[in-house]
Specification:
Radius of gyration of chain A: 15 Å
Number of helices of chain A: 0
Strand content of chain A: over 45%
Helix content of chain A: under 10%
Largest sheet of chain A: 8 strands, antiparallel
Number of strands of chain A: 10
Oligomer: homotetramer
């Protein structure tokens, strides 16, 4: 099998937002995921930078092994400024040392009927 | 830290629509956001142009400071033709004087269970 | 004002589907829109081609005037094979004689709590 | 008619997830679709590769005839490792022997009010 690395090393996501609440009757808890696909044969070391409306950027590290996907839960991530704040607009930049593909998804469970949104991130 | 400007200076969003109503039992009010990520070291000055089915375009200004995100709420924006009309199809063009990345999201709260949609805008 | 045409002349949308039903308690009826933004100074003449799983393609015409948007409702469109069938997978190709930008959105109102999805179409 | 093949031969989808449950009162069952549009005059032979967080990739085959769309239901697909597991993050790579366009959509029917999300896949 040919496991050429596929994608780009830099990806941007302007619209991030972690809802404050999750309804106890919802089938999921509110969360955001930065989903990484590493189709190549080398592990990917990722640096995530988070941008805010009212503060300097913060950072976090993650990995996505070779021939694996990793769905990074932003509600569980520890940044150099602590956990990400909820109910504030923010944005994300993902840098990888090998080519990967990145997709962002949000599930809002503020109401028992959850709602989903997704987009492939913007590559550079 | 290297804060190279990332992205493009022109972004288009064909599907804008501000819902008329928000259900009083919904966890949010209906709104649209033009989310801008400015990863560079220079402030971004933005011109938004809005296109309609039945009228000439209108315009508005906004800013996104260096190393910040700005989630521009279209329901709160003042254009040179006043606030954006609700319940009519429209579209948006965003021009920036420095490279940025733009994502469009809509939350429709016409029903207590809100629904979300999002897409990275189209860059030129 | 400079009204350079912005975008591409060919756009593809693989995932189209017109839901059969709309709940009478929903705030909208189920529908799909092909949203066109024509930022230029020449009217856009559009040919839409629809692809199916079990039949040859059908076609329809539409227009988007200069400096206007047009949100084409697929549930209201007359093709050369009649109205589009509901509850079957289909796909769409949009060709324009001048550059435009195209976004596809679906609202499913099968349940009183509607759900939205959207994506910028794929440009060529 | 000119049926030039349109699109690319390689498409990636980082965020796949098959929900475990479907509410009996929902208008649909939970599912994911890989939607392929083949606008050309040659049949497309597709190889789908699925990536996981905790296992080596698995594979499946599919076809999309000339001038047709095919909405591949991932909940019904047989891979070389059996049906896709539910309630685990995974990702997909689609390779075609002729140019096509690929869009990914998910419908989550865990609650009676279903929610949709979609994105054009990432092309290479």
């Amino acid at each position: 099998m040919n496991h050429t690395p596929l994608g780009k090393c830099t990806w941007l996501i302007p619209d991030c937002y972690l809802p404050e609440h999750s309804d106890p009757d919802a089938p999921y808890v509110s969360h955001e995921s930065v989903c990484v696909l590493n189709a190549g044969d080398a592990d990917a070391h990722l640096e995530l930078t988070f941008y805010f409306e009212d503060a300097e950027p913060s950072r976090a590290q993650a990995e996505c092994p070779a021939r694996r996907t990793r769905h990074i839960r932003l509600d569980a991530l520890e940044t150099d400024a602590g956990p990400l704040r909820r109910s504030v607009p923010y944005a994300a930049l993902v840098r990888s040392d090998v080519p990967v593909v990145v997709q962002y998804s949000r599930l809002d469970a503020s109401h028992p009927s959850v709602t989903l949104m997704t987009s492939i991130a913007y590559p550079i």
